[in-house]
Amino acid sequence: MSSIVPHISIFDKSFSAANTSHYQVYLSIDFNAITYTILNTQNNTFIGLEKYLLNDIYNDYSLVDPLTQIVNQTILFKQPLKSFNVAYVNHRATLIPNVLFNNNELKTYHQFNFSEQEEDLFYADNLINIPAHNVYSIPDYIINLFNKIEKVNYHHFSSSLIEASVLYAKKTTNDLIIDIHILPSSFQMMVVKNQSLELYNSFPYQTSEDFIYYVLFVLNQLDIKPKDINIRLLGEVDKNSAIYEILYKYSNSITLGKRTENLKFSYVFEEIPQHHYYSLFNQYLCE
């Protein structure tokens, strides 16, 4: 089986196979790409990133072959690491308030909101910045691919988005924060009011018209006028994209997000827009 070539591969010159016990790896898995980044905990600096683009991935099981190749061919994954953190990207997650949460009822919570799948394994992320757990599932055949890697932690990608949005709200003077995180075929919307999460939801889309329909619907339901607010865009979007252009027709106060100030980034990230890989770089908030 031939190896998969990364679409992006950047590493700081300080990267060393002899130093991996100080490295935390953050891996993100979705239907469009498998991406990982490396945090050197000695100086709290991100020092590398690789991204593999995927084609013809229509369900979770079709991730097995490319993910197996990437895990097997990446020498770093075979080295002793400080931690290995996997964020799974799907829509099958639900927030449960802490006062109602019971760790023995994960399957019940999940099946109340989503259809049952035989291969589901259930997890819950304890969110720090809101009083809730994020309950989700990952197929067992995905989990099994990491059996030979030590110190593996699993998270749902939405947990880092929620944590980052609420944390951002606590550091600003704005009473209302609207964050929209863009992926190639879905987007996630976080609304934070008075430093409390008002809404999180994920929406599929194929066109910019699909995108703006959902955004305007949510804002209308919350009685928020687009012209009266600033919207922060995160993830895979740029100013010349159709999504940005159609959103600008309804709200001309749009900003592109920036990386966390709590950690440092190597010079190798200078060419990457600061709002890209937002969920990946904020995975550290879920530890």
Describe the structure in your own words.
The structure is a single chain. A hairpin with a 3-residue loop joins strand 10 (176-182) and strand 11 (186-193). The protein is built from 7 helices and 15 strands. The chain is an alpha/beta fold. Strands 1, 2, 3, 4, 5, 9 and 15 form a 7-stranded mixed β-sheet that branches. Strands 12-11-10-13-14 form a 5-stranded mixed β-sheet, sandwiched between helices. The radius of gyration is 19 Å and the shape is globular. InterPro entries: DUF3822. It comes from Vicingus serpentipes. This is DUF3822 family protein.
Give the fraction of residues assigned to helices.
10-25%
Category from helices, strands and their pairing: alpha/beta
The number of helices is 7
**β content, as a range?**
25-35%
For the secondary structure, the number of strands is 15
Short structural summary:
The chain is of the alpha/beta class.
Question: How would you summarize the topology of this molecule?
Answer:
Layout: E1 8-11, E2 23-29, E3 33-40, E4 45-53, H1 64-73, E5 83-88, E6 93-97, H2 106-113, E7 120-126, E8 132-139, H3 140-143, E9 152-156, H4 157-170, E10 176-182, E11 186-193, E12 196-204, H5 208-221, E13 231-235, H6 242-248, E14 254-256, E15 264-265, H7 278-281
Parallel strand pairs: 2-5, 4-15, 5-9, 10-13, 13-14
Antiparallel strand pairs: 1-4, 2-3, 3-4, 6-8, 7-8, 10-11, 11-12
Helix pairs in contact: 5-6
